[in-house]
Amino acid sequence: MIEHPRSVEEVRRSMGEPESKPYSVWSAIRKYKTDDIDWIWSNQINSQTARLGGDPPAWEIDDEDIELIESRAISTAGGDRLRRLHRGGLLPDGSHLSWADGRFFLDGISLDLPYRGLSKILRRRRGLDGINWRLLLLSVSLANKRFRTARHNEGTGGSEETIHPVILIDEVDSSLDLRHPHLHPLYHFRRNRYPPGHPTSYARRWFEDTSWMREWNNLSPEAERMLREDTIPTALHIKKGRLQLRVRRSSRKWRKLELESHPEVWAKLVTWALSPIHSKSQSRLRCIQQGLFVDDDTRVISKEDMNGIKMLSGIVNESPNVELNNGRKGGFHVTGSSGAAYLVVPGVGGHNTRFTVRGLGRSRQDGDVAGDPLRWMHRDRPPLCVVETPELRRLVIGDALSAIILALLDDLKSQQHIDTLRGYIREVQPRRREDREVVEHRQAEDLRFRLRNNRAYFRTRRYTEVFPRLWGVLLRLPLGERMTFTAMRRDEPNITFDGCGAEISTRSRLERDVIYGMLEASGWQRDRHEEVARGQQRIYIRTGTGAQNLANQVEGFAGMLEPVLTVNDRVRMVPGPAWTYFERNNPGICALLPGTEQRLD
Fold first, then answer.
1. Spatial CB neighbours of 224, under 8 Å, sequence gap ≥ 6
2. pLDDT for the residue numbered 537
3. Would you give the DSSP letter of residue 16?
4. Among 153, 289, 479, 481, which residue's Cβ finds the most Cβ atoms within 10 Å?
5. Do 36 and 82 have their domain in common?
6. How many domains does the chain have?
7. Domain match, 178 and 83 both
8. Integer Cα distance of 548 and 517 in angstroms
């Protein structure tokens, strides 16, 4: 939610043109005249409850208390200190504040407390008369709540955005039928979309005297219902007892700065943060965050990002097959040339991509969506795996989204480069009656594709077909032939011959050991002189032909392959032992077998 520079300048002028230094901005906010914070001066009757043990002392904490609170080392803390923190103390308005089991409690209500800032305020002991501390601190705690959208669980919600916390606090609504609570419009929203433990038990009636709650009460039920899932940038944070505001500093860097410890500064910023999403108060707060702490004239969005957004906007406006998705997830609805529909949503996706791509079945243009029998399968299916290339990652987000949308518009062509599109397009294309032979041919293609990508099939083919072919080459090459056996290189052959085109790549230490056994059995030896001449290691020369009967030698090196051809030590993936696939009668020096003078794997 980016504010216009004119709005930022208006807020800057209304606050007296403060400098960008934090103390100058806090001072301007403190002096800013507004009636938004009349609620912190509301009449609060001091507690006159008679206690058997006498009234608690005024609330205060020291450095050792702070160390215990932040470390939560309750097991090593002294009993007297724990009892004193548990007993707590009174604030100037008579409300009772205590700490127990790692949480602060105000009159029995659990809350997030900026205890360092509160301690600084109370130590001044001036300007504190008449402040409703209970209402102020509960409002500060509520402004610090974080409620993630359902999108956040899919990796598309940012860590610096939240649903407005006022929407989710409990209310006494005349439209709520206590006999049928599930009929209330917000019942399922509150009950089902957020896990147990979210602190939504705050009651609206506690805040009826605040100006920000009066703004919410003036909204119509329809207007509030429309805001229920709108996200807002997070503003206020409580970290280690300090109340902080997230602001933009120079060079578009965002920082969290501690607020001035003053009740009026707290009340103003909390009021603006808790006001309705599109109100003037929220806009004023965003102007402060985005523009008042910046020394230079850099904008929130860079020129490159602006150009990327303009390009994306042009694609959306000019292409009839791209439209904005107005649903809960947002993003862009794209119809590909295949008739398949996609939803592209900005945000963190799989493999740390900056977007997610989800299949939606057939598009409306390809026929009635309601008639798509697979529609229900695509509604909750996981996103398609689309990974950003290094070139795409170097682009700004607008250009990256434009690139993926253009790729999906021509998905029939893009499926050649994006494997996940191929299977998805085949899945959603209309099923037509086809000739039985065509159907069987397609099924056979699918089976062959699955077989090629099956690890068990890869191992069995490699060790019962590819390695026996290499063994046949080693047995048939003439004396004096040389072979180079270099270190393993990914997907590149590291075994080559001087006099023939056979070559292969090894993939593991096991394979190298098996090949060493083959070389020894077929009469190959290291050629040290040639290694020195070429400046290269592992050069072999054939100096002999080996024994006529190689059964024992074959059983020796083939036995090393047995573990990888056996599952769970008892289930064999091939019909017989590994040695049955290798030649055991030495053919002698002769012509190579067909299909071996080439890349073997």
1. 167, 216
2. 87
3. T
4. 289
5. yes
6. 3
7. yes
8. 16
The answer to whether residues 344 and 353 touch, using CB atoms and an 8 Å cutoff, is no
β-bridge partners, 524: 542
Report d(CA 173, CA 163) in Å as an integer.
Answer: 21
Same domain, yes or no: 122 and 267: yes
Check: CB of residue 12 under 8 Å from CB of residue 292: yes
Q: What pLDDT, on the 0 to 100 scale, is given for residue 238?
A: 92
**One domain, residues 290 and 357:** no
Q: What is the pLDDT of residues 371-409, one digit of tens each?
A: 444 444 445 567 888 888 888 888 888 888 999 999 889
Whole-structure pTM over 0.70, yes or no? Answer: no
**What's the mean pLDDT in 503-509?**
91
Q: Judge if 146 and 80 occupy the same domain.
A: yes
Q: Which domain holds residue 425?
A: 318-431
CA distances from 175 to 151, 180, 221, 421 (A): 28, 11, 10, 48
Mean pLDDT over all residues of the chain?
81
Q: Angle 526-530-534 (CA atoms, 0-180°, nearest 5)?
A: 125
For 140-198, the pLDDT digits (tens) are 999 888 766 554 444 444 456 777 888 777 543 433 343 444 433 343 334 344 444 34
Q: Does residue 419 carry a pLDDT above 70?
A: yes
pLDDT in tens, 566-585: 877 677 888 888 999 999 99
User: 373: Cβ–Cβ under 8 A, 6 or more apart, which residues?
Assistant: none
In this structure, what are the phi and psi dihedrals at residue 483, rounded to the nearest 5 degrees? Answer: -130, 135
* DSSP string of 157-201, one letter each residue: S-TTEEE-HHHHSB---TT--TTSGGGSTTHHHHHHSS-TT----
Q: What is the mean pLDDT of residues 511-517?
A: 93
Q: Which pLDDT tens digit goes with each residue over 80-116?
A: 888 889 989 999 888 999 999 889 999 989 899 999 9
Q: Provide the 8-state DSSP code for 322.
A: E
SS (H, E, C) 369-437: HHHCCCHHHHHCCCCECCCCCHHHHCCCHHHHHHHHHHHHHCHHHHCCCCHHHHHHHHHHCCCCCCCHH
